[in-house]
């Protein structure tokens, strides 16, 4: 705590906080951001999953509104919320790890690679797009190891229709069913592909977020509107460029319930790519692009805004 000469106001700096305040705050902020990001736009994510699972003989819906209306009418209003329990359970811890590793790695890289004053603080508010991208990659590897099994459960539940498991099926029931039929490996078969999807997504997301922030908010002050805009821009670009990997990930995570015999027999990334291309050509890797972008623009904006807000409340 320090008092500026000639002023009566007291300025509280980060060093005045308890030693563990920064870590605890980032864990809380990250968990809050993750849950907000995934739950608010969850129905759009469900539409994306269903589009990516469609066989080549099934026409893809051209309108998200009509898709939502059709599914809700045929299967009930809750149909598009199947799997949200898995997201709530997994996204909090995974994003807590995500943002904490990001801040810690960014701080380490800033200390090692720049001329900035050395600091042991976890919070690093300086703008370094390339360093942010590197830190985002480290954060993704750590958080995806925790989140991938929950993502598998989420997509299996999103794909559930009235002809399969009922909408009241519980998370543990799905997990048990997958384990009995496909073994533990089913929860991690998509992990390498998830990393191939999320590492470039994270690099683009963090890099474009910091670049956009440097243009829109050069003073790096807390501004929810600018955080929101920067996050939306970053999320939309990252989502569009990584959609092909997301299609492959979906094929791997849902192969156990696929009605397509060839897709049920895929064994990994190369096998999935080959099978998908043989059946549908390049279109197999563009499915779900529109809802993926529509999901990620607001969800990433929400995530960054919620994260920056939580940091502001908890740290400053």
Briefly summarize what is shown:
By secondary structure, the chain is mainly α. The protein has helices at 21-40, 42-53, 64-75, 84-113, 129-158, 171-182, 191-216, 224-241, 243-253, 261-264, 269-280, 289-315; strands at 2-3, 10-11.
Keywords:
316 residues; globular; repeat; ferrous iron transmembrane transporter activity; mainly alpha; 12 helices; 2 strands; single chain; MCP; Mitochondrial thiamine pyrophosphate carrier 1; transmembrane helix; disordered N terminus; two-stranded antiparallel ribbon
Using the CA coordinates, give the radius of gyration.
21 Å
Shape: globular
The end-to-end span amounts to 12 Å
> In which order are the strands of the major sheet placed?
1-2
Uncertain stretches: 1-20, 56-60, 162-168
Largest sheet: 2 strands, antiparallel
Report the portion of residues in β strands: under 5%
Order of helices and strands: EEHHHHHHHHHHHH
Structural class by secondary-structure content: mainly alpha
Helical content band: 55-70%
- Give me the count of strands: 2
Number of helices: 12
Which whole number gives the mean pLDDT? 79
């Amino acid at each position: 705590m320090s008092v500026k000469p000639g002023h009566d106001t007291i300025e509280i700096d980060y060093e005045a906080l308890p030693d563990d305040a920064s870590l605890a705050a980032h864990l809380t902020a990250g968990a809050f951001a993750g849950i907000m990001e995934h739950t608010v736009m969850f129905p759009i994510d469900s539409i994306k999953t269903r589009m990516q699972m469609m066989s080549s003989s099934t026409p893809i819906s051209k309108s998200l509104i009509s898709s939502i209306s059709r599914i809700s009418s045929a299967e009930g209003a809750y149909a598009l919320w199947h799997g949200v329990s898995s997201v709530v359970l997994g996204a909090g811890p995974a994003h807590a790890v995500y943002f904490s590793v990001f801040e810690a790695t960014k701080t380490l890289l800033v200390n090692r690679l720049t001329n900035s004053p050395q600091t042991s603080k976890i919070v690093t508010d300086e703008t370094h797009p390339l360093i942010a991208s590197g830190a985002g990659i480290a954060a993704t590897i750590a958080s995806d190891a925790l989140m991938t099994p929950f993502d598998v459960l989420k997509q299996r539940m999103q794909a559930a229709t009235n002809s399969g498991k009922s909408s009241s099926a519980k998370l543990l029931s799905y997990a048990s069913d997958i384990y009995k039929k496909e073994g533990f490996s089913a929860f991690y078969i998509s992990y390498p592909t998830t990393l191939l999807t999320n590492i470039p997504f994270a690099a683009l997301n963090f890099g474009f977020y910091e670049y956009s922030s440097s243009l829109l908010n050069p003073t790096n002050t807390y501004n929810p509107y600018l955080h929101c805009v920067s996050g939306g821009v970053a999320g939309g670009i990252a989502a569009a460029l990584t959609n092909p990997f997301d299609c492959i990930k979906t094929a791997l995570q849902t192969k156990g319930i696929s009605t397509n015999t060839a897709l049920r027999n895929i064994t990994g990334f190369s096998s999935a790519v080959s099978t998908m291309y043989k059946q549908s050509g390049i279109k197999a890797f563009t499915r779900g692009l529109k809802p993926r972008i529509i999901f990620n623009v607001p969800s990433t904006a929400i995530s960054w805004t919620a994260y920056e807000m939580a940091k502001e409340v908890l740290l400053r």
